[in-house]
Amino acid sequence: xxxxxxxxxxxxxxxxxxxxxxxxxxxxxxxxxxxxxxxxxxxxxxxxxxxxxxxxxxxxxxxxxxxxxxxxxxxxxxxxxxxxxxxxxxxxxxxxxxxxxxxxxxxxxxxxxxxxxxxxxxxxxxxxxxxxxxxxxxxxxxxxxxxxxxxxxxxxxxxxxxxxxxxxxxxxxxxxxxxxxxxxxxxxxxxxxxxxxxxxxxxxxxxxxxxxxxxxxxxxxxxxxxxxxxxxxxxxxxxxxxxxxxxxxxxxxxxxxxxxxxxxxxxxxxxxxxxxxxxxxxxxxxxxxxxxxxxxxxxxxxxxxxxxxxxxxxxxxxxxxxxxxxxxxxx
Length: 331
Known about the structure:
By secondary structure, the chain is an alpha+beta fold.
């Protein structure tokens, strides 16, 4: 992860290139240097896109302003590869925007890290790195947009669109939860990506560490993903609840609590055997390698189908229903 100082240098360089591209005339050599700078670090393109956008907004705000009269002199640039000298007719506009543009970029990054009420967004075919106040870093791809809500006891990110990769700062007291539609992914210190799938679903890919993933509000039925694993969940829309008329009763019966099976990093084969011992419908693993994959969650003991769906999602497989069996097999 880049330091704050290096990020500031990148923003300064991006500001210089944005001013030169808009106010100067890039020679073939300068254009080649710009392309080389953009290709040198994936953060450069995001910084350059932000600089161009801020420049256009600033230019609209001050159009018609007169710069103070002074002798024309070269524009100073950073030691890193930067733009060539501008033509005199446009140099005044470059000086007027250059310093203010670099400062504005710093404000844009700060606002992106601290303000949770407004979605953060980038334009198409761009990548934006957002540093959050807790030290975590979110890299937004394409048209990704997120809402950030940081509190003393939790860090909650809502992925409104697109996909993003999160490098989570370790904080055991504040879980880091990204929600995409009706899918949640929680970590305390790791690297993982989350993408939207349809209206309610999401895809989670773990690059480092481990992540808990669950659909809807079923936190107790979370699946544990480790580095190199991915999971796509697309929860169905909730069915409309039938209206139930209340009937007076002297002694209303209290429904018995359902018996549950708790799985804590348990191999799927072992878990399936536990379900099979207490249910008529048997779970069958068509491919032995599925049985070695581990799963975490809390499941109703009398609902083997719910477990089978989650086990299939974790293993990248699918479920087939037979006569008295539920078969889990690889796709």
